[in-house]
dCTP deaminase (Halobellus clavatus), 204 residues
Amino acid sequence: MILSDDDILARLEAGDLVVEPIDDLDMQVQPASLDLRLGEEFLEFQRTNISCIHPNRESEVSDYVTETRVPEGEEFILHPGDFVLGTTKERVEIPPDLLATVEGRSSLGRLAVVIHATAGIVDPGYEGQITLELSNLGTAPVALTPGMRVSQLVFTELTQPAARPYGADRGSKYQGQEGPQASRIGADPEFEETRGTDGGAEST
Ligand SMILES: Nc1ccn([C@H]2C[C@H](O)[C@@H](COP(=O)(O)OP(=O)(O)OP(=O)(O)O)O2)c(=O)n1
């Protein structure tokens, strides 16, 4: 079952669902979702010197991103074709019996701005800020301002609390993340033997 506005307010009030800071609840609570705002940090991928990213080579993932901070009141220009990582201003704590999905806002979608390329699940048990996969599919640059509402969370109640919530065991490599976090896919167990090496991958 998807939580309605009153359900969301009740869970926030009870304190097991945490979303903070919220400065204006009336503005952020929607009929069946909660709007989240854009944070000040961005990770941009360098355009040069990347021949190919091998997910098992952590340096190839992390060395080619640069961090930019744009204070509230200033603009981050998202150019056509750009892909950058942003973050929600809010940090969340999702209780074990809820699944949250991060969605874009229609108003930004109509400007061709997408806030998650693929991954939209925020697991039961997840705690931290949410990394946004920002891209501009249009033809004109779009000015984003930290503090603006860019995304929304939809909460679904599970049939029973997750037995192994995020953060409780193996993996959970994004638990507690602050600001945008580059991919940590190299930490996946299937890459254990080849991590940091060329993994036998052919360079093309
Ligand atoms: N746009 C998103 C989507 C998810 N997350 C956070 C909340 C999720 O609970 C966590 C993990 O998401 P996935 O399970 O989709 O990612 P992985 O499977 O790659 O990570 P893991 O192996 O840690 O489960 O990342 C995020 O910050 N931004």
Q: What stands out?
A: The radius of gyration is 18 Å.
